[in-house]
Design brief:
The structure holds two protein chains of two kinds. Chain A is built from 13 helices and two strands. Chain A has a two-stranded antiparallel ribbon with strand order 1-2. Chain B folds into three domains: about 160 residues, P-loop containing nucleotide triphosphate hydrolases (Rossmann fold, 3-Layer(aba) Sandwich), CATH 3.40.50.300; about 70 residues, no CATH class; about 250 residues, Rossmann fold (3-Layer(aba) Sandwich). Chain B has a six-stranded mixed beta sheet with strand order 6-7-8-3-9-10, sandwiched between helices. A six-stranded mixed beta sheet of chain B has the order 16-17-18-13-19-20, sandwiched between helices. In chain B, a hairpin with a 5-residue loop joins β1 and β2. Classes of the chains: A mainly alpha, B alpha/beta. At the A-B interface, α8, α9 and α13 of A face α11, β16, α12 and α13 of B.
């Protein structure tokens, strides 16, 4: 269909721009861009296991952004939802080392944080961008405080006690189990959004809030539930890191740090389409994996790679900017045509 | 035509304005406006008065035709060019920055006229004194009542003396005392030779303030008369036009149904919007199998009445009972679950424009609580859609394309399909045929009549007088937030309707 093609082209433009920006950054820093990209490719092949481990949480934080986006909400809180999800999963694993239970509680913890932001928006008019950014910091420092003071590993003081082995998820045929969980979450998301009444309500709220409420849709419930659902996926992202990847947290939360923001990039790159999100997430996690090789091979700071996500977000933000400007441009064209017509 | 001997200060020639949606707002209007004269533009809504004013003010461009000012053809690119040329307009809804103080607002406007803050405030104080306005310069505008805000607007417009002053429905939001003050200002300006365009739908005001009156109807000038000689009845007839009133009482479906009690009852309803009491104690009842028509000139509280009845606007006082249940504080979706349906006047609100026909139909079912989960049976929705597309003759390329690409008529048919599909017991419909062609209008009317005969209670709010008279069992006329009359259509005379709508009963 036509809109799909349009979106694909948009994504490719975003990608191209991001790659160009990276090339520019490499040469400005005095590196040979061709050599850098070659190393990056090598790194992706070499570190494909890292790529597969990073992709699961990234898919889930993408969903954390995408679901509320369908209701017209900007969930910047995937990051904070992931922190509390990670902590909750870790805490449960000490008491009852069952991976399913750990993931469920982690998801619930993230969901509660999302729900809170949703309720604040609907009942108190607090904009979700503001509340989720603040909740991110609250979550970050609270989780760190708990990790440092209560969960510290006496032998390795910069990390927590590990998840007991029965609570861990490993690999199936070389692929981490959490990747399958993340892909299942995408399918679930698709079903909710396009096959279930709740999804219809959520999408109508985002597509036309004023019309939807006049059609008898409970738009407030749709907004709150979309934030709850987004939070659930954010929390799950943190949980899969702890239960399926690192099996612990470090005191700087570095294994979770940034995953929520990268998820926004992956979601935008996929136009929030839950079935496209695994692919965009894979791409971004490949960059992370390849980045290690860049650092080793050429000494390029791995943070240069965040330029990529940044440019993707920026460029893919442009088409919506264009949507905003379109009626104005059209009016301008009409006026010009009229003037020409009037002159003739 | 121009008064003998003198040149008009401002004139328009053959103005045509077609809006992008195809609405013809002006259809060849030529008028003269003389210095030192109050020229009243009278007409129902949709007559084209405001469009004409906005073209003169440079806010919108005419599709064709010209504006001649001080003997030269002008085409202002925006209001600021018109303002610099000496033309001012005071809108019905004021254009003040609510969070600023009065002084800030005046300084801001003055800066655009090349006045320093001190100069602007000095001029404002002088004007306030001259007209006896008590204006609290340090108060925040949003804290002030409408009457004071209007005085600020007046002072703002007169900071540098204008040559032309346009007033759009200036008395619709303010009290009678404020109106007196306003009229004093207008008379003073007339003495000084300012040309004044006074837009109104209130018949009584014509003789009080006007020198000449031009009656407009559906984008055309119907007549221009000396204001003092025109009678209210004559103006009412000109404003409304020649139409046939229904001669006999229609077959009384409502008669038998009446005994079952009201499906929708509104008691002493008050609605306040942006500090203005738009609905001031409205009571009405709609019985099953009855169409109650509500008409009036736009902006007399109909929108607020409707949006309060459906639960979009909060209620300041009174009670709304839907099928025996008090829903005054319930959100819209709860009212839908009880059996309400709402057809808003704007197609942008009656369908989710970005979604497709299938999804919109499913939304209608969901709103009425008739879409069962956990999974939507899209095949069933598609079958329903096909049924209504055939029944109503919707022209549609694909059920998967956003409905925004459909024409207004097809959109309205889809909006009706989503209502027909759920069989509500009470329908609130606003301007259901606005902007539609004759064939589609007929279809919409027959659907409404059909719904009524199946026992639905319909509140039909429309500014199309013909439509209301033709379809309704009873007709209510709204003016200034009140219902001024409820009668059967054949009991009204044309003059009476015109007078009621013009607030001169």
């Amino acid at each position: 269909m036509k809109p799909v093609v349009e979106k694909l082209i948009g994504s490719l433009i975003g990608l191209a721009a991001a790659l160009a920006a990276m090339a520019l950054a490499f040469s400005l820093l005095g590196y040979n861009p061709a050599e850098a990209f070659r190393l990056l490719g090598e790194g992706i092949v070499e570190n494909y296991d890292i790529m597969l481990l990073r992709v699961a949480p990234l898919i889930l934080t993408s969903l954390a952004f995408a679901v509320p986006a369908f209701a017209g909400l900007f969930n910047i809180g995937g990051e904070g939802q992931a922190y509390v999800g990670a902590l909750a999963a870790l805490a449960v694993s000490y008491i009852a080392p069952n991976p399913v239970l750990c993931l469920l509680v982690g998801a619930l913890a993230g969901g509660l944080l999302g729900y809170l932001a949703g309720v604040l928006r609907v009942k108190r008019g607090v904009h979700e961008v503001v509340s989720t950014i603040m909740l991110n910091w609250i979550a970050f420092y609270t989780v760190r405080y708990i990790v440092v003071n209560y969960f510290k590993n006496p032998y390795y003081p910069d990390t927590t006690n590990p998840v007991p082995p029965p609570g861990r998820l490993g690999q199936v045929a070389g692929v981490p189990v959490v990747v399958f969980i993340a892909i299942a979450a995408c399918i679930l998301c698709y079903l909710v959004l396009y096959r279930m009444p709740l999804g219809l309500a959520i999408r109508s709220t985002g597509a036309g809030y004023e019309a939807a409420r006049r059609l008898g849709i409970d738009v407030e419930k749709a907004m709150i539930l979309s934030m709850l659902l987004g939070g659930v996926f954010g929390g799950l992202a943190g949980a899969v890191i702890v239960i399926g990847e690192t099996y612990n947290l470090d005191v700087a939360l570095s294994s979770v740090y940034g995953v929520g923001f990268d998820g926004i990039g992956a979601a935008l790159l996929a136009w929030n389409n839950p079935l496209a999100i695994p692919f965009s997430s894979l791409l971004l996690s490949a960059l992370v994996a390849g980045g290690y090789q860049l650092q080793i091979g050429m000494g390029i700071d791995i943070h240069v790679l965040s330029i990529f996500t940044g440019v993707v977000v920026f460029v893919l933000g442009l088409p919506s900017l264009y949507e905003l400007l379109k009626p104005k441009l059209q009016a301008l064209r009409l006026a010009k045509a009229r003037r020409r017509g009037g002159g003739a | 035509m121009a008064a003998s001997g003198s040149q008009p200060l401002l004139a328009v020639r053959d103005l045509v304005k077609v809006y992008p949606d195809g609405t013809v707002a002006l259809n060849g209007v030529s008028l003269d406006f003389m210095a030192g004269e109050v020229h009243v533009l009278l007409g129902e809504n949709g007559a084209g008065k405001t469009t004409l004013a906005r073209i003169i003010y440079g806010e919108i461009r005419p599709t064709s035709g010209e504006v001649i000012y001080e003997g030269r053809r002008v085409l202002f690119r925006g209001p600021w060019e018109a303002i610099r040329a000496g033309i001012r307009m005071i809108y019905q809804h004021f254009s003040l920055v609510g969070g600023f103080t009065v002084a800030d607002n005046i300084a801001l406007y003055g800066s655009r006229l090349g006045l320093s803050r001190r100069e602007a405030l000095e001029a404002a104080r002088r004007l306030a004194e001259e007209y006896g306005f008590r204006i609290p310069f340090d108060a925040r505008v949003s804290d002030l009542p409408a009457g004071i805000q209007q005085r600020v607007e007046i002072v703002k417009a007169l900071l540098v003396e204008p040559r032309v002053l346009i007033l759009d429905e200036p008395t619709s939001l303010v009290s009678p005392l404020d109106v007196e003050a306003l009229f004093r200002v207008i008379r003073g300006l007339r003495e000084k030779g300012v040309a004044i365009l006074y837009i109104t739908h209130k018949l009584r005001e014509v003789g009080v303030i006007g020198d000449r009156v031009t009656v407009m109807r559906r984008g055309r000038v119907v007549a221009t008369l000396p204001a003092k000689k025109a009678t209210v009845d004559q103006l009412a007839r000109l404003m409304i036009g020649e139409r046939r009133l229904p001669e006999e009482p229609r077959i009384a479906a409502a008669g038998a149904a009446g005994e079952r009690g009201a499906a929708l009852r509104v008691e002493n309803l008050r609605v306040v919007r942006e500090g203005f009491e738009a609905v001031r104690g409205v009571s009405l009842e709609v019985r099953p199998g009855e169409i109650l028509g509500v008409t009036g000139v736009a902006g007399n509280g109909q929108d607020e009445l409707v949006e309060a009845i459906v639960g979009v606007l909060p209620v300041a006082g009174g009670r709304i009972t839907l099928l025996g249940r008090d829903v005054t504080r319930e959100p819209t979706w709860v009212r839908y679950r009880l059996g309400l349906a709402y057809l808003p006047g704007s197609r942008k609100l009656s369908l989710v424009q970005e979604m497709n026909a299938l999804e919109n139909l499913a939304l209608g079912l969901l709103g009425a609580g008739k879409l069962r989960g956990p999974f939507i049976d899209w095949g069933w929705v598609a079958k329903l859609l096909v049924k209504y597309v055939e029944e109503l003759g919707v022209v549609m390329h694909s059920p998967y394309a956003p409905v925004k690409h459909l024409s207004g008529g097809n959109q309205q048919k889809l909006a009706l399909a989503r209502i027909l599909a759920v069989e509500p017991r009470v329908l609130v419909a606003v301007d259901p045929t606005h902007g539609l062609d004759i064939a589609t209008t007929r279809i919409v009317h027959s659907i409404l009549a059909e719904m009524r005969s199946r026992g639905m209670a319909i509140l039909l709010v429309s500014s199309d007088l013909d439509e209301v008279l033709q379809l309704s069992d009873r007709v209510a006329v709204m003016n200034s937030g009140r219902i001024v009359s409820i009668k059967k259509p054949h009991e009204y005379t044309l003059e009476e309707l015109g007078r009621l709508m013009g607030g001169a009963a």
